[in-house]
Amino acid sequence: MDKKCIVIHLAEDEAQTYNGKPLMLQDALFCPVLNWCMRAWMKKGVLRFFVVCDEKFQEEALACAPRGAAVAVGSEDDYQRDIADFARGRWIEEVREAMLPVGSMMLSFRTLPELLRLQQAVKEEIAVFHQRTGVRVLDIDCTYIDPRVTIGAGTTILPGTILRGHTVIGENCEIGPNALIVDCEIGDGCVVNASQAYESRLGKKVQVGPFAHIRPHCQVGDGCKVGAYVEIKNAVFGPGTKLSHLTYVGDADVGSGVNFGCGTITSNYDGFQKHRTVIGDNVFVGCNTNLVPPVTVGDGAYIAAGTTVTRDVEADALAIGRVRQEQKPGWAKKRRELAGGDK
C-alpha cells in the first residue's frame, strides 16, 4: 500500500465553468471534486498527492486535502523541481483531466453540465449507502447529502433536507423536512424540523424548530429546546434549557434549566462591540425581556415579563424594570369623538 504518488494537473478550463475556477475545484454536492478524488484514491491506499495549478488556485487546492493525506501544491516548474523528493521513490501517476468517482470507477468530464449529470448519480449512491447502514432516507430525489457527512443508524432524513460539510448526526434522530445543516455535530435522538444550523454542536435529545436559526459557534446541551422562530448565535446553553419561540440569544453563556419567555432578546451589539450575557441555572426569563449586556443573572432568579435588564440580578431575586401602568377613564371615547368616530 502507499506505493503510488498521484500528480493532479488542474487543467486550464476556467473559461467554461462560469466562475473562473478549474473543473476539479467545482463542487459536487457541496464538496470540491478534487476532494472527492483524493478521498477515493486514499481508499485504494494512495496517501501522497501533488497538485499542479496556477498560483491563484493553490490555497484552495490545498484546502481540499483530506485528513491523513500528504499534499503539496505548486506550479509546473515547482512540480518538475520537487516531485522526485516529494514522491520518495513511489510510482508517479499523472492525471490531466477532470474526473469524479462514481461507484468503483473514476469517470472523466469536460464541462459543467457533464459534472451535474455525474452529480445526480453520486447523489443517489450516497443516499443508498446511508440506507444500507440503517438510515431512513425517505425521498432520495429531495435529499442532498455531502459525501463527508456521517449519519448514525436509526436516523430518519425527511424530504427537503440538505446536509453539508463535515456534519456528524447521531443515532435515532429525525432531520427535516426542509432542514439545512452545515458543519454541525448533532447528538443522538435530536429532532431538527424545518430549520437551519451552522458550525454548532447539539447534545442528545435536542428539539429544534420549526423555523429556528442556529448560527455558528453554539453549544446546545442535552434536552434543550430551540423552538419556533428562535435565533441563537455564539452561545452556550446548559442541559434542559428551553427557548420555545420568538427569541434571540446571541453572545451568551446560559446555565441549565433556564426558561426563556416569548420575545426575549439579548441586546449584544452596542454599535461598536459585542458583549456577553451570563445567565445562571434555573432562571425564569419572562416574555418580552431585554437583556442589555454586559450583564449577569444569578441562579434561580426570576425576571418579570416586559423587563429591560441593564444591571446584574442577584441569585433568587425578582427583577422588574417596567413603567407602572396608568389608566385614564373615558380617554379612548373622547378621542374617537374628537376624530368624528362616534356618531
Assess the beta-strand content as a share of residues.
Answer: 25-35%
How would you name the oligomeric state of the polypeptide chains in this document? single chain
Helix content: 10-25%
Q: Domains counted in the coordinates: how many?
A: 2
Low-confidence stretches: none
Sum up the overall morphology in one term.
elongated
Distance between the termini: 95 Å
Output the CATH class name of the largest domain: Mainly Beta
Averaged pLDDT, please?
95
Q: What profile does the largest beta sheet have? A: 14 strands, parallel
Count of helix runs: 5
**According to CATH, what is the topology of the largest domain?**
UDP N-Acetylglucosamine Acyltransferase, domain 1
The CATH superfamily of the largest domain bears the name: Hexapeptide repeat proteins
Task: Return Rg in Å.
Answer: 27 Å
Please name the CATH architecture of the largest domain. 3 Solenoid
**What's the β-strand tally?**
36
Class inferred from helices and paired strands: alpha/beta
